[in-house]
Amino acid sequence: MTISPHDAHRRINEWLRVRRAIAHGHAKFPEFAELEAVRLKEKIPPIGPPLRLKDAERCLTFFRRLAQLTSAALASHLGVAAPNLRTATNCLDAGSPAARRV
User: Which of 79, 81, 85, 98 lies 20 to 30 A from 73 at CA?
Assistant: First the structure.
């Protein structure tokens, strides 16, 4: 599936609105098409649509794919090999300098 820069921008902003609602303890989540309850046209309670595990998984998949495509495009622009984000180590692995500072 191809996503335009405009669509990517819109989806990032929608997920950030949900993140802000959670972080700031808002009583109501924003409604947008990526949430399963909204897509299925379920009756939305007054406190907003529920956030389900499938929604969180779709969010993670979107951001991971966006990171993969962005890093591949940047690598291509720089003329270097694209990083394999699936095998990249976590910066907080026990042997990393960042983990030693924690």
Answer: 98
3-state secondary structure of 18: helix
pLDDT value for 81: 86
Rounded to whole angstroms, how far apart are CA atoms 11 and 6?
9
* Count of domains observed in the chain: 1
Where in the sequence is the domain holding 52, given as residue range(s)? Answer: 5-101
Q: Using CA atoms of 50, 54, 56, 59 in order, give the dihedral in degrees to the nearest 10.
A: -120
Q: Which residues of the chain have pLDDT under 70?
A: 1, 87-102
Is 92:98 a contact under the CB 8 Å cutoff? yes
* Distance from the first to the final alpha carbon of the chain: 39
